[in-house]
From TrEMBL:
The organism's taxonomic lineage, starting at the top: Eukaryota, Viridiplantae, Streptophyta, Embryophyta, Tracheophyta
Protein name from the UniProt record: Zinc knuckle CX2CX4HX4C domain-containing protein
Biased segments, Basic and acidic residues type: 265-284, 395-405
Disordered: annotated segments: 260-430
Basic residues composition-biased segments: 300-312
The Zinc knuckle CX2CX4HX4C domain, residue ranges: 187-233
Organism superkingdom: Eukaryota
Amino acid sequence: MEESSKAAGGRSRREVDVDDLLKNLNLHGEELHDVVLGKDEVKKWPEVKWLAAAKVLTGKSFSMESLKKSMHAAWNPARDVSFHAVGENLFVLQAHCLGDWNRIMLEGTWLFRGCALMVKPFDGATMAPTVIPAGVQAWIQIHKIPPLFRNKEVLNQLASRVGEVIASDLTPVQMRTGEFHRVRVKLDSAKPLMCFMPLAVEGSQRMFLQIKYEKLPRYCEHCGLMGHIFLECGTGEHAESELQYGPWMVAEEAYWRHGTPGLRTRGERDMGRNNGRDPVDGRGRAPGRGASTDRDRRKWIPKARGNSKPRKRTSEEAGLGEVPTDDLDDTAASPLKQPATAVTHSSVEGRVGARKKLDMGVEGELVTNETIPPPPPAYVPPKDLKKQKRAHARNGAETREKEQPAQKGGMHSMNDKNPSAASKEDRPAQ
C-alpha cells in the first residue's frame, strides 16, 4: 500500500502539484468544457474587500508565523488580519475593517527583520496573484530646492525620477542644514536607489539636489539595490572606495513625517541606519528625541594618579593664613540672652583637657556610664540543637558505662587487702 501510494520522485500523491498532474493526465469529455462567466455578470457581484498580495524583499528563508506575529505587532489591528501562503515568499492577506486596510496600505514602509514587506491590492480572481508585488512605498526628502522651483509640477517631476509619485507635500521643512520637501513614492525594487537629482535650466549651470529616504529598508552600499547588504553582494569583498551608497542617504528619524512608524527593534534600527556595519550603542531615537549623540558615546578616560594633587582641607594649606573670626562672633543682644564672651584658644584647650580628664580613667581608659550589653547568642537551627542533645546524651551514657566497671574494680581491691572485713560481711547474722 505504501509503495503504491508513492508517486514518481518519492513524493506522496497527495503532495503532487495540480500543474504536474495536468501535464501527465489526458482530460476528456466534460473535463474540457469551460464554465464561461460573462463580464457583465461578474461586475454585478460584490468585490472581495481588503485583499492584498504581499512579499518580503529578501532572498533568505523565514517562517510565515514569525512574519504574521511581527506584522500584527507593527500594525496593531483592530480586527484580525488573515495570512495564508500561496507560493514561495508570496502571501495573501485580508483585513476585516477599513481602518486596518488603510493602515496597512498607506502608512508603510513596513519592515520584517530589516527587509521591506511589499503589498499590492489583489482582486481575488485567481488563487494566486498573477502580478507579484515589486514596489516599496516610502517618503523621500528632496533637499535645497531653489525657491523659484518650489511648485507641485516641478516637485512631482523631480520625484518621478526616483519612483512612482503617490503624494507630495509643498510645505518646506526647516532643519539645521536647510529646507527640504517631502514626497511619497513607490520605489522599484529592481532598480538601484538614487542619491542625487540633477536639475538644470536651459542656458544655466546644472545643480544637484540631495535625496534622503525615510525608514529605508535593508539596502546594499555596493550596488544600491534593496533586499541585501554589501557583505552579501557577490563575494562580499569590496573596497571602501567601491561603496557608492551609505548611511548618509537615510534621513534622521527626528525629521520623518509625523505618523510614520519608527523602527521597533534594535536589529531593524541597525539594518536601516548602519546597514550591516558596526551597530551604534543604545536604543534611543534620533537627535531631537532623546538619541545618543557623539558626545554621549565618548569614551571616558580616567585621570592619572600622578598628576592629581591632594585636596586642600584647611585655610593654612590653601595659603590663606589665619581667618579672622570677628565676622563670626555673635553680636546680637536681648534681655534674656547672656552676653557673649570671647573664646580664646587657651580656654578651648582647657575645656578639652578637662573633658579628657573627666572621661578618662586611672589607666587612661575611657569611662562611660552606659553598660554595654553582651552580644546575643548565635542562632542555632532546631535540627542542629537536636543533634547536639543526642550527642550529649550519648556521651553521658558512655561515661557512665566507663565509671561503673572502675567502681567495681575498686571494691574488689579493697576486699583483697582486708579479708577479715569481707568475711565478716559474708557471715550470716546470728
